[in-house]
Write a structure and sequence with these properties.
alpha/beta, Rossmann fold, Jelly Rolls, 3 domains, eleven-stranded mixed β-sheet, 24% strand, globular, disordered N terminus, hydrolase, Xaa-Pro-like_dom, dipeptidyl-peptidase activity, CocE/Ser_esterase, Xaa-Pro dipeptidyl-peptidase C-terminal domain-containing protein
Length: 700
Amino acid sequence: SSVRGCRAANRFAVISRPFERVSHLMEKPDLRNIPYFQKNANVDVTDAHWRQGTAIPLPERKRRLGRGQVIRYSVLVPMKNDGVSLAADILLPRSVAESQGQIRVPTVFHQTRYTRSLRLRKPWRYLVMGGEPIDVVNSPAKRAFLVAGYAVVSVDVRGTGASEGIWEASWSDQERKDSGHMLDWIVQQHWSNGSVALYGISYDAAAALRTLSLCHPAVVACVALFPFWDVYRTISFPGGVPLRRFLTVWSQFNDCMDRNDFGGISRMAGAFVRGVTRADRLEQSTYGQSAVADGNAHRLRRKLRINSLKEILKVRGENPNYNAAKDLLGLGCCDDLSSYGPSTILDVSACKHVKDFQKASLHAPLLSVSGWLDTTAADAISSFAASEKVNPYSKLVIGPWNHGGLQQVRLAKGEKSTITAFDLIGEIMDFLETHLARRQPRLTLDEEPAVHYYCMGSGEWKASCSWPPIGQSGLRLYLAPGLLQRTTTQQENEVHYEVDFQLSPKGNTRWNAMLNYLAFVRYDDFGPGYLHFVSEPLDGDLEVTGSPILEITLRSSDQKADIFAYLLDLDPAIERSLYVTEGCFRCAHYRESDLVGESDDARLSSLLPQCPEAGIPPHSFRRKDFVEHLANEPTMVRFDLAPTSYKFRKGNRVALAIGGADHSEFSLETSPEPMPRRTLTFFLGGCHPSCLVLPVVRQA
């Protein structure tokens, strides 16, 4: 038998060799080790942390945890109001778990819609994470929290993962109340010292912002990575145009997870993932017990866990969860009522609770992180601005990243994108060391300002004490036929543009990268289907940092219009235009509102998400300001493009491409069969000057 055992061990060692690299990645994520990324990566990485190589680097932290150093419990925690139980993973350093209340530590609270942890199939579960359940997105961060001595509580929100109940809507009020109940439960545990930091990325970050607005006394810090602050403007209707493809694919993805069918997501996911981690009911678990249960009790608990999850999935199958695409694509304005209940898109946005958010921020600073190639950049700025008004220790970091921060997007001078070298977890731990562990900060606000942003084109980190950066001013470039010029003309010109409803930018755009995040962001040259306006060669470097604004006068043949505008850098060295940023707008929302007569809450929640920059048009996107048909006469339309930071080099030209559709990503204004003809007439110069306003930062 010993010979057979040795042979089996040798066979297992041979089989496991191809997966050693995968196991290493889970311990120390570095996607540059993967061959796919090696052949596409550029070795000249420039987005490393601004403190790297300085006299005061980020805190040293261990990358690995020894086997058995973390105690994990998966339990169902009942909510106070209705008894519905939420599945929670409780991760404790062994010394804390075994101290029976003698050691109390701060807690990092994470709530997610995408399952708190997953069980892998055999034999993969033994090759990755030592057989423990895995959180594909957040495992590196959770490991860092545990190494630092914090407790981690990760929860499936109501109706998702292994939690009971129904997912009524994205970021519902019930979900927000559940967060308060979970915080109450955490501070009552024997290992908790009463201090909690909120943490999340993407959906989870928006949940953290809404939880912060509860003003719970235990919350002392919040880390929001790529957060959604205004759900309407950011992820549902950018510029009032329905983001059809993302909402459709995202809803299908959620449906597969809610059915615990990971094979429906992809064949590879089904091959590796068995399902969501099951949870014990508190009275049936070993949580809080010092003695180790025998094998029979363990088998009984496993059987009860399986039956409990089957019952939860059966109820969920009989009462399907909220479908975002089915609901939102039938709406048009931010105050339209949902077909699932008496709520609006504004109701589920964190910006609705801005006054409570600011009240909580007095004692809980915010670390807000996003990327210039992500749709959440404006929301990260807005949430930071709301927090920084009352707490100078809040921080903002915006890098050259896509959604999730996996890529350093490199579009200048034709360079290839690569994997980020930025130590994001180190930045998070530095923030928590000060505000959760309550240690003395290693740098003062004078030594390290609150805002750090990466300037694309120049490839360097820049700092500012606030947003927008000091020295920002507007540079007007007026549109003339084929030209961008610094002065307008007295003669009025009309440019007629036939809309191609099948038009889309070519490449892996920022919108597609939110779904296909492993593929590098890429914009190919904008072809003849767009209107092009080009400036004279620049006589010096020009840094554009902030939100560009397009002011344009137009008339539509069918009294409807969508505008898609792309800011480009025309580099004569490579004879092609380089993508800088973009914006879109449904002209039915062109009316600007000062919200006269509205309450303070309505005024704040409608204007604050627009970014705290002067001159950004205050569109309310409400039904009362919606225009069903544009007037059959010239109409002035003003809207902002996504914020960016980009340096145009001397000799390059600023270019603007304008289209009337993005067929791949967005819903059209009308879609009858056959597709109607639409001609847009743009008025340039004379009494209807159209212009592009660039937020230029001039260095002292």
